[in-house]
Amino acid sequence: MRRILPALAVALCLLAAPAAAAATPPPAVPSDVAAAATPPPAVPSDLRATEVSFRGSGGLTLHGTVLSPAQGRSARPGMVLVHGAGTGTPRTKLMGEAVEFARRGLAVLVYDKRSEGYSLFQRSYTQLADDALGAVAALHSQPGVDPAKVGIWGLSEGGWVAPIAAARSKDIAFVVLVGANGLPPLRQQTWAVAAGLRKAGASGPLVDRAVPAMYRTIADGGMFPEPYYDPGPTIAAVRQPVLGIWGTHDLLTPPEESPPAFAGALEKGGNRHYTFHFFPDADHAAHRTPDGGVTRLPELAPGYADLVGTWVGDVTAGRLPTAQTSGPAPVQDAPTVPMDPPAWWESAFLQLVMVLLFLVAFAAYPAVALARRLRGGSRPPVTGAARLLSAGGIAVVLGSLSYLFYLLMTGGKLAAPGPVLAGRPLIWLALQALAVATVVATALTALAWRRTRGPVSPGERVRLGLLLAGGAVFVPWALYWGLLLP
User: Where are the transmembrane segments (predicted)?
Assistant: First the structure.
């Protein structure tokens, strides 16, 4: 119940039922049910494909493909590919990487990611690591693969998962990470959405205040899985050699902060066998990008697959690197911001209480007038300022929360704020203008009530009192969300 109430609170606050429904976890099924398998992928003629199935966490059956050179030596190195974020991501998503790595002499296992127990609002990195270990065991048993030379590759979210698997198993010979995060997920994702907004030309309180506030509220409501997971201790427990790869134009992982965090954790654990490399004109997945990380081309960054193939060959032959970093300096427009759990006065529960107060206070004013008209009674006195306060307050509260939630939902693929004017998306600019008008309307309504001559009925006093109470609470609320900041 402690987690259900905040989750319901945020869901009601955001009024995003369609989006939430699309991301809600599927109904529970028995753990030994097989995950749906995608059709076997098309494979180039110079490679051989073998379909495999294996047990993941909880006994779930997962399906994958092992790619290896059609000709060549036996006892070759192997590598398991671990997906980035996404529910039920098919193996075809990483088939480009798998093909290129296999052409460098590796046996590569790529598998369909689970959807059971994994959704936008629910996931466990430990569970995903168990799936990866199941894949490692499956690759160990493949003909032509040297079990002592099987490693793991993780992209993005896989950069949190792969170290967990490596720290728990001596059956993993090496670790390759691409676009990996050395920071907690909530801190990374908040930065990513802000980076996307900055790339689109947005700045100011929407980026600096509203987006972080929304993410903290969502996390407090239980709608952001593993928000404060600290990867440092796990990375420090990794004893295998590590290859870290980042694109210089990564807009989803802070490319200046993550590599030092990884290096610091590895060094703390006594592991100096790591190689870090930055690829120019490359994005989060080390694919080519022509526009600073906004567009991802199908091609891998030049030299990326060659580096993986050569590095794996060296480390599996016993030629271990020692704290090497190379490549051009990455581009990071702004630093990340620490994301601590919210205080009680900014919690998801209190946000729910405030939104309900606004709905009652602002909607009661026109609702009472409508009810009286339908009953044929006398119309209560109405002022233009009161109408503006009522309509503007509801529009700003619901509109701003819905817009912020939309930005967060699209932030994983770079936020799409719409047209931007003077550093403000036009939608946000309109909401800010309406918020200022709502504050002014609060003052004018209070002044008009004070100047009212003659007796005021108890019902009218309650009606206007609720409206003004909503307007008074609206001011600090709008300041907190950045709606009244320049």
Answer: 348-368, 388-406, 426-449, 461-483
